[in-house]
Amino acid sequence: MNIIEPIVTCCFCGQSLLFKNAVLISVSLSSNIEEAQGLYAHKSCLDKVLHESIPRLITLPDDE
């Protein structure tokens, strides 16, 4: 039996990636925390857009 792995789209580059390899980014307004949107990204794309002074408190997996 073939297992189909979910595919998501990187919110920065628009390319597809496997869900298991994606970084999930949760976006919500501080004035309305009841609404949130989940976005997906490649680790490398997230690293490119985050300023170097922003600490990474988690170890992000390498892109596969």
Would you give an account of this structure?
The chain has one helix spanning 43-49; strands spanning 7-9, 16-18, 23-29, 32-41. By secondary structure, the chain is mainly β. A two-stranded antiparallel sheet has the order 1-2. The longest helix is centred in the last third of the chain and has 7 residues, at 43-49. The protein starts with 6 loop residues before the first strand and ends in a 15-residue tail after the last helix. The mean pLDDT is 88.
What composes the largest sheet?
2 strands, antiparallel
Order of helices and strands: EEEEH
Structural class: mainly beta
Number of helices: 1
Whole-number average pLDDT? 88
**Distance from first to last alpha carbon:** 24 Å
**What is the percentage of strand-forming residues?**
35-45%
Number of DSSP-assigned strands: 4
> Shape from CA axes?
globular
Helix percentage? 10-25%
Strand order of the largest sheet: 1-2
Report low-confidence residues grouped into runs of 5 or more. Answer: none
